[in-house]
Amino acid sequence: MAFGIFQLSLVFTIGLYIALASDIAGAIGINEIPLSLSLKDPEDAVISREQNVVLKCEAKSSVPGLSISWFHENTPLLANDTRVQISGDGSLNISKTSAKKMEGSYRCLARNDVGAVLSNPAQLKIATIGREFIEQPDNVNTTEQQPVIFPCHIDSTPDAIIYWERDNKTLPQNARYVPLPSGALLITSTHSIDTGFYRCVVKHKTLKKTKQSRWGQLLVSPPSVTSSPPQFLPLNLSLNITSIVGENVTLPCAVNGWPIPVLRWVYNKDSLISNSSVLHLTNVTTDLSGNYSCIANNVFGEVSMNFTLNIFEIPHFNVTPMSMSYPSARMVRLECKVNGVPPPKVTWLKNGAPLELIGRIKQLNTTLVLSHSFMTDAGIYQCVASNIAGQIWMAARLLPLFSNSRPHPPQNVTCQPFDDNSVCLTWNSPSNVTIQAYSIYLFNSVKGYDFVTNYTYYLANGLEKNSEYTMYVQSYSNDPSDQSNNVSCKTGVQGQRNLQVEFLSESSVQLIWSHVSNDFLCGTKKNLYKVQWKKFDQTYTNVLYTSHFQKTISRLQPSTTYDFRVQSTTNKNDMSPWVTYSPLTNSSEVTVMPTYSHEISSTENHTFSSFVPIQVEVHPISPYSVNLTWSDGDDNLSYMVYCTDVKEKNNRIMESHSNFMEVTNLKPNTLYAFKVHAQNVKGMSSFSQTVEVQTPTDVPSAVQNLRYKVINATAACVTWKSPMFMNGKLLNYVVSYTSNKNLPFEKWHNIYIKEEDIYINQCWSLKQDEISIVLKNLSVDLQYTLVVRAVSETGSGNLAAPITFSTYSKTILLPNSEEETVSGEIDYKQKLGVAVGITISALCILCCVCCIIFRRRCMKRDAIRRTRLTTSNNYYASEVAYSGAPLHMRPDSCATETHEMQQLVMSDGNTHIPPIETTHLDTKGGIGFPNGQLNGNLKNMQMNGHVANGNIHITENPRYDYHSCNGNQNSKKIKRDCILPQLSCLQENAIDNIQELQDGCLDYSPNKPTSNHSLPLHTENSKLPHKVFDVSDYNSNCNSEFVHIYGTKDLDKEVDLNHTQMTYLDESFSALPNRIVSPALAPNG
């Protein structure tokens, strides 16, 4: 059974995994496909001059169209090149006659119908060996136990094999004989038997040549008795050694000296690794890279030689790219993760050629990301990783899937420069489908941009100034199209305005101009030009609008010099210059004047009145008002003046009954346009020509939030906030202060704070737009007045309200070391004190509220308690009746706070319930009410609402009657004659101290005579006193009920045993031993 369940679970898990995997694959639409092309890299070759060479390129393809081509030094080898021949299997044959000229690197390219793969380079070298030795052995004289080196070096390609001979015999194997990588021989410790002649023999396997060096004689003398410090022998080795992981490395260390120096090898200056003359490292790894120090010392000194060993690792892949097919317009990632030492450089090839990373094609670290897919993205991609140790590659195929109903790419894509940071693209929409959107891709050698639009034009903003960009467009319907043709253009404004002024008459001229590249809105061929003119010394300008490249200006004043300018309304930054025209010379010259960007709505042509205001002139009065005048008509005309904020397009309409008006509430340094039309009972005229004027720039407003704080007795920190309206470029702030208010303002002390020094040496923790400065060398005995004002290009700003301060409060009460921090400490202490004070106040208020609420509850319950009897059991209610209505008690949480005697004795004048009657009562209890009477006179045991001071004796009977388990008074009528005979039915419960009434004990008959020993049974209409206890048994689920009835004396005694009595023992109230009995209590008091 268990095995069956296991099988079922396994099948379910596998099915779920496959389903999820298929769902995920279907969701993203990416499927793995075979590569279809494999290639084995050609190998390096070393040949002699008279030898042919064959370089193999082994390629396999699972699709048709396999072909092999070769590159020499990244230059294609053509099929008609007579120096080489490409065989049918793709091998490259190089003849011996051209081998010398064909040295270098070779790469083969394998191509099929899907794509192409490029191999790693293979090096072709010509074998050579030098004619002479560069270094040969020399004669050497040494003493025993000293090292000796015989050099040997000759140029060879590849490296030749070197071995040594002594006295025409091959040098025997000995640990003291160490061949060095340079070809030299090191004898680590010479002996007398080493005396002889030495030479090196070089063999070149490829050329099959052998060369022998000259002989070098070694003479070994007995050990020297002359002391000498350690000294290294020259090794002719580089101290920077490189190796590849897995190779062997030898580090020699040859030292002369007497006594014989002690050698030790230290790794990275802290680890002792060897004590031999030669350090051998076999099968090295990258962990062994570092510094190796050979240290030699004897009693006469110490020397050291440091080698740096760099171990490189050929790159190897951790993650390789996956061949895949995917739907169009998907983002595709080709993962390629590679390790090596040093970290490899990763480049990508597409079909054997370097991949251009442009716009949507990006390389993030080593991963290739294609943000969109085109048909041109199909092919084979290679991830090539290389470092100093070697180069590897891995290929993957991408196959984007396109729908047959996809739209054609946009046609006739054109690009035109617009301004310094924008270009305008336009294209034609394809006709085969309805296009929903277009994607535009722009890129240069540094950065790429993506844009989306629904139109057949787009103004690409935010480009680099004067930069060349390449771009293409892609259309989208239900499926994306392929990309359009690439177009290129450069940012920057093309064309010039070239405004010409031609004379027509004494009062009219004609303006002619040319268009600039940013005159037209992108995607449109129409533009509205703004024609402006003014008198040479005039502060306002007249404005007309036209969509043509010429305009006639009339109603000019004869013999008056005018300035003309034409601007494009679409270009807010049109900086076309003013052209000055003088009718006397009929000539014009270009003059650069201040320019303003603006646009005014076209004039209206409704004409009802024959009079049109002319000669409209406007003159600034102040930064906030101008004076407007125009030609006047008859007396029945009124005028409507239109004032427009050119930048914000806010309009104001004002009425005037004369031909002049002062326009107020303007903003400083703002360009306004004014036009006027007349109106009368006949209607209104057309508008006058528009005139423009720029209000003057105002001075800065007053600085804000000027305040100070005293640092010490001679210094203060002043801070303020920048003006709300700067009205121009800020130049500096001027802080003026004096101790003499009657001194003229120009003689006050002034401190100038330049704009570049505003945030230097701050003395206050400030916000970004706040400034502070320290005033020094103040006098503690003087009071200072201070003002601050801002200064801009327009002039000095308005003065802020002055402040008055003194450093008297900062007399030298603190040490100098504490003066700098006192301000911060005061601020901190003030904040801390406020926080602590608020917290304490809140806690006090909370405590008071809680006390008031709790006291009111206790007082209310205490008042109720005074009118009730208290039982010892606080968990269950009891009922006590004394010749009247019963009294009910309930638990009270405040009972523990009340004195015990206050619970036992009521606070009114009558201490006992019921009132005390003259009845005999001894200490053992009596008949009737147990707390009813005293022996002798009745005594009031309460004074001023409290129990009188004295001795209290409480007698408690542990027996207690439970009359009702549910706490309710038993209403059953009990037969009086049954009580005494059935007393035996009352049984005492030893555990719960409960007397239960056996079933069927009480038999009540209304007509049965009453016994002399019994009291009449208290009924509803009876006024005889009785006492009933109803207490629930909290230790059992008892539901029995019984009624305690006072009838006979014996029964009274039995009942009285269940009552607790209290006797007042203080005899100060009476000569008799009076006793006051408390109300009934439970067994626990």
UniProtKB/TrEMBL annotation:
<feature type="domain" description="Fibronectin type-III">
    <location>
        <begin position="495"/>
        <end position="590"/>
    </location>
</feature>
<feature type="domain" description="Fibronectin type-III">
    <location>
        <begin position="409"/>
        <end position="494"/>
    </location>
</feature>
<feature type="domain" description="Ig-like">
    <location>
        <begin position="315"/>
        <end position="387"/>
    </location>
</feature>
<keyword id="KW-0732">Signal</keyword>
<keyword id="KW-0812">Transmembrane</keyword>
<dbReference type="InterPro" id="IPR003598">
    <property type="entry name" value="Ig_sub2"/>
</dbReference>
<dbReference type="InterPro" id="IPR013098">
    <property type="entry name" value="Ig_I-set"/>
</dbReference>
<keyword id="KW-0677">Repeat</keyword>
<dbReference type="InterPro" id="IPR036179">
    <property type="entry name" value="Ig-like_dom_sf"/>
</dbReference>
<dbReference type="GO" id="GO:0098609">
    <property type="term" value="P:cell-cell adhesion"/>
</dbReference>
<dbReference type="InterPro" id="IPR003599">
    <property type="entry name" value="Ig_sub"/>
</dbReference>
<keyword id="KW-0472">Membrane</keyword>
<feature type="domain" description="Fibronectin type-III">
    <location>
        <begin position="612"/>
        <end position="698"/>
    </location>
</feature>
<dbReference type="Pfam" id="PF13927">
    <property type="entry name" value="Ig_3"/>
</dbReference>
<feature type="domain" description="Fibronectin type-III">
    <location>
        <begin position="702"/>
        <end position="810"/>
    </location>
</feature>
<feature type="signal peptide">
    <location>
        <begin position="1"/>
        <end position="21"/>
    </location>
</feature>
<protein>
    <recommendedName>
        <fullName>Protogenin</fullName>
    </recommendedName>
</protein>
<dbReference type="InterPro" id="IPR003006">
    <property type="entry name" value="Ig/MHC_CS"/>
</dbReference>
<dbReference type="InterPro" id="IPR003961">
    <property type="entry name" value="FN3_dom"/>
</dbReference>
<keyword id="KW-0393">Immunoglobulin domain</keyword>
<dbReference type="GO" id="GO:0009653">
    <property type="term" value="P:anatomical structure morphogenesis"/>
</dbReference>
<dbReference type="GO" id="GO:0030154">
    <property type="term" value="P:cell differentiation"/>
</dbReference>
<keyword id="KW-1133">Transmembrane helix</keyword>
<feature type="domain" description="Ig-like">
    <location>
        <begin position="223"/>
        <end position="310"/>
    </location>
</feature>
<dbReference type="InterPro" id="IPR013783">
    <property type="entry name" value="Ig-like_fold"/>
</dbReference>
<dbReference type="InterPro" id="IPR036116">
    <property type="entry name" value="FN3_sf"/>
</dbReference>
<keyword id="KW-1015">Disulfide bond</keyword>
<dbReference type="Pfam" id="PF00041">
    <property type="entry name" value="fn3"/>
</dbReference>
<dbReference type="Pfam" id="PF07679">
    <property type="entry name" value="I-set"/>
</dbReference>
<feature type="transmembrane region" description="Helical">
    <location>
        <begin position="832"/>
        <end position="854"/>
    </location>
</feature>
<dbReference type="InterPro" id="IPR007110">
    <property type="entry name" value="Ig-like_dom"/>
</dbReference>
<feature type="domain" description="Ig-like">
    <location>
        <begin position="34"/>
        <end position="119"/>
    </location>
</feature>
<feature type="domain" description="Ig-like">
    <location>
        <begin position="121"/>
        <end position="204"/>
    </location>
</feature>
